[in-house]
Amino acid sequence: MPRSLKDIIAHADELADRFEQMEPGTPKDIEPLRRLATAVTEEAEARSRIVESVVYARRCHTSWTTIGAVLGTSGESARQRYAAIVSEREKDSADSS
User: Fold this and answer.
1) What is the pLDDT of residues 61-75, one digit of tens each?
2) CA 14 to centroid of chain Cα atoms
3) Closest alpha carbon to 4 in 67, 73, 39, 50
4) How far apart are the C-alpha atoms of 31 and 36, rounded to whole Å?
5) C-alpha to C-alpha distance for 64 and 19, rounded to whole angstroms
6) How many CB atoms lie within 10 A of CB 48?
């Protein structure tokens, strides 16, 4: 079930908020949750870096086939997943110029 980067980051933020509001029974209970919250945040940050790297690669005229190979998928799959984001970022970049 693929989720968008925005959904993943929102979920990580939600988990971080819940974690901060928790009142664990004992310090022993908190460590697994701290590790989980950290992992979720790191995953969201990694996905964000991947998106930024794909955008940069496309700006450098890297083919979808090559991008897909680095991502471990087909070029078509990479294009389907990231092309709209790349287009949006290019539009934003052109609008701010």
Assistant:
1) 999 999 999 999 999
2) 15
3) 50
4) 9
5) 39
6) 14
Long-range contacts of 86-95 (CB under 8 A, 24+ apart): 86/54, 86/55, 86/58, 89/55, 90/59
Expressed in angstroms, the distance from the first to the final Cα of the chain is 37
Question: Which tokens belong to 49?
Answer: 């870096």
How high is the pLDDT of residue 1? Answer: 40
Asked whether 43 and 12 are in contact (CB, 8 A), the reply is yes
Instruction: Give me the DSSP letters along 34-75.
Output: HHHHHHHHHHHHHHHHHHHHHHHHHHTT--HHHHHHHHTS-H
